[in-house]
Design goal:
311 residues; alpha+beta; four-stranded antiparallel β-sheet; 34% helix; 26% strand; flat
Length: 311
């Protein structure tokens, strides 16, 4: 018996006069559109935080973006992987099953080169040394922390890195016909680009997704949630925040800064007709002009320059 190619995951057929639909007996259950959307939110959160992690940890402009979420068989997933590649075997307690986190060897070597103070770029294909392996494990563990953050709205997991493999054929974590959910990501580390992936067991993630659909709050739970929201809002509203009013910064050479003495005058590049910036945590949220209120210095909040231009 032959069957037609399986439909793309997340797409539902319309019933009516459209004729029979194909059924893949290897995939008796498929992810619904709602399941795909829920996973998309979790993986996009992970991708954003992971891109920030790479940029700060490697000191190189980096980004991670979600490409697709697919439901495959394990043997189909393995067939898409290059050899060699870096595969992290991860346990996600308290959930059962094993998660695989895969990233290309070239991207890993580039990341390690950045961590060691190198310029990055193209790297040789070779096994990792005893010095480089702890750096890789540390980076992967930080990435698993971001994965926990991405999934915290779905389930509280505690990912643990168990081992690192370079050839998926040697792994015995899944049976060839096991259904898995594969999320693919575009990873950019400096000038290096690759496609990384995360492989989740279908039987592990499906109950979590179905539980999101069936949760119904009781009246008492709603009261507790609403009270918590009010308390949180009130606490944030009363929290003290450091606010700074500053001129536009200037650039100086290091030796000029070292030679500064009391009485020296520094010319600022801030035009007298431009208001000062009001900032919180390096974020500009208003503009103001300097002044005084009695014996104290003060500033008067004014429209931003862009608002003035629109007028």
């Amino acid at each position: 018996m032959t069957t037609s190619p399986p439909r793309s995951p997340g797409k539902m057929s319309r019933r009516g006069n459209t004729g029979p639909t194909s059924y893949d007996f290897r995939r008796p259950i498929k992810l619904s559109r709602e399941h795909i959307r829920t996973l998309q939110i979790a993986f996009e959160t992970y991708a954003r935080s992971c891109g920030t992690l790479f940029t700060t940890r490697l000191r190189a402009v980096s980004s991670v973006s979600l490409i697709s979420i697919e439901q495959l068989n394990y043997d189909e997933y393995v067939a898409t992987l290059s050899n060699p590649t870096v595969i992290a075997v991860v346990h996600i307690e308290p959930l059962s099953g094993t998660v695989l986190m895969e990233i290309s060897t070239s991207a890993v070597m580039t990341a390690i080169d950045h961590m060691l103070g190198g310029p990055g770029g193209a790297q040789p294909e070779r096994p990792l040394t005893d010095v480089e392996m702890p750096l890789l494990r540390g980076l992967l563990e930080r990435m698993l922390g971001e994965l926990r953050y991405g999934f915290e709205t779905l389930v509280d997991i505690n990912p643990k890195l168990k081992e690192i493999e370079y050839n998926a054929q040697f792994l015995r974590t899944h049976q060839p016909g096991d259904a898995v959910v594969v999320a693919s990501f575009e990873v950019r580390i400096g000038t290096e680009e690759c496609v990384a992936s995360i492989c989740l067991p279908f039987g592990t993630i499906l109950p979590v997704l179905e539980m999101q659909e069936t949760i119904e709050l009781t009246a008492a739970d709603r009261m507790v949630r609403d009270a918590s929201l009010r308390n949180l809002t009130a606490g944030l509203s009363a929290a003290p925040i450091d606010v700074a009013v500053r001129f536009q910064p200037i650039r100086m050479r290091t030796d000029d800064i070292v030679e500064l003495r009391p009485g020296d005058v520094l010319p600022l590049g801030h035009p007298t007709s431009v208001p000062l910036e009001v900032t919180v945590n390096e974020t500009v949220f208003a503009h103001a002009v300097p002044g005084n209120q009695g014996a104290r210095l003060a500033c008067l909040v004014v429209p931003s320059p862009k608002e003035e231009e629109r007028r």
